[in-house]
């Protein structure tokens, strides 16, 4: 969790909120739930934030910024147009692995009315689609609907992250599952059509 505080109470509220918002969604967690689990009063939350939505948005924006940075940093380590697309997705997977609670919060927000917090901001699908468009323009990927391929690629990556978090991929190391994801993404990206 990148959002840090000098106050122990504020730190507990941040930690508990991240967990509750990730498991229940922003709408499913109340100020009372947060205060009880953080062992503080509801007033303590309002001392630092105007309400739970402001708190949730702060946590979301921090996690989102770190996700995009992880994707772009990993992309920049790869050479080749298809490989750079794959790098974005490996960056996504690695972020989810390192930050399961933040990943859960992002997943909740992306699939709720709070997705409005992304208005005017590039979404992961935009980042991946832009890389696919560049790879298509260079001839590395056959002509395609970049957003459809991005949806497939993100779907594979997100599903693997969720399966790993739930221990639904037994008998395979993370390195091996990542390697197989890279191979599957490369094959899908290079295939004609979506």
UniProtKB/TrEMBL annotation:
Pfam families: TetR_N (PF00440). Keywords: DNA-binding, Transcription, Transcription regulation. GO terms for molecular function: DNA-binding transcription factor activity; transcription cis-regulatory region binding. Residues 30-49 bind DNA. The keyword DNA-binding applies. Residues 7-67 form the HTH tetR-type domain. Gene3D superfamilies: Tetracycline Repressor, domain 2. PROSITE patterns: HTH_TETR_2. PANTHER family: HTH-TYPE TRANSCRIPTIONAL REGULATOR BETI (PTHR30055:SF234), HTH-TYPE TRANSCRIPTIONAL REGULATOR RUTR (PTHR30055). This is TetR/AcrR family transcriptional regulator.
